[in-house]
Design a protein that fits this description.
The chain is mainly alpha-helical. The chain is about 75% helix and about 0% strand. Pfam families: Globin.
Amino acid sequence: MSKPLSPETMALVKATAPALQQHGVDITTRMYQRLFVDPEIKALFDMAAHESGAQPKRLAAAILAFAQNVDKLDALKPAIERIAARHVQTHIKPDHYPAVANALLPAIRDVLGEAATDDILNAWGEAYWFLADILINREVELYEGQVA
């Protein structure tokens, strides 16, 4: 398990919630544009849900919920369970997470421009890998057929 997020990181992530509420779908849409340059990763996704806008909206809502609850992760446990189960169902593996980070963080800057300072992007990078670690560990348990 990764180390807990620092209070400074949590504060920066929480401070981005209003921007995510306003621009979250634009960010996730841009993230998927970046991510889908890899045809192997694109093949893992339900393109109908993506093209209808449902997938970018779901991810934007999940990112916003994380930002709003980064200091109270217990509130996110049901969502984390659903996401981990969906990832296992769609064959997401730990080696897919770097590609998402490499698409998401630049997408934040693409959409928010100068408002996405290096400090904010660094905080989101740390927060992303913190959450990714939680998901990866849960997904490993699910892949192994264990019940936590």
